[in-house]
Structure formats: structure tokens, C-alpha cells
Specification:
single chain, about 60 residues, mainly alpha, 2 helices
């Protein structure tokens, strides 16, 4: 019984370690996600600014 539990615990720990390593290699880092979100926000604000400028020019 003790060997069965020990083997199961070893399997769970090994699976967690492999899963964590795979996630770290494949997932984007938080800094990169933050940088991409900032770029997207800047582009969005520039687009909105261009639209507002176009509308104000059309009104004048």
C-alpha cells in the first residue's frame, strides 16, 4: 500500500513539474502581455483621435 501511494505521489509531482515547464516555455510572459496591451491601447487611442479630428474638420 505504501509503495502504491508513493508511486502515485511521485507521478503527480512529476506531472505538475512537466506541466509547469511546458507552460513557462509556451506561455507569454506577463511583461510581454503588458507591452502588447499597451501597444493596442495606443493604437486604439490614435484611431479614435483620428476619427474625432476628421469629424471636427467636417463640422468646421
Amino acid at each position: 500500500m505504501n509503495k502504491l501511494v508513493s508511486g502515485a505521489i511521485t507521478g503527480v509531482v512529476l506531472t505538475a513539474a512537466v506541466g509547469t515547464a511546458a507552460h513557462m516555455m509556451n506561455g507569454k510572459s506577463p511583461a510581454r502581455r503588458r507591452k502588447e496591451a499597451k501597444k493596442t491601447a495606443v493604437r486604439t487611442m490614435q484611431t479614435i483621435g483620428g476619427i474625432v479630428d476628421g469629424i471636427t474638420s467636417a463640422i468646421r
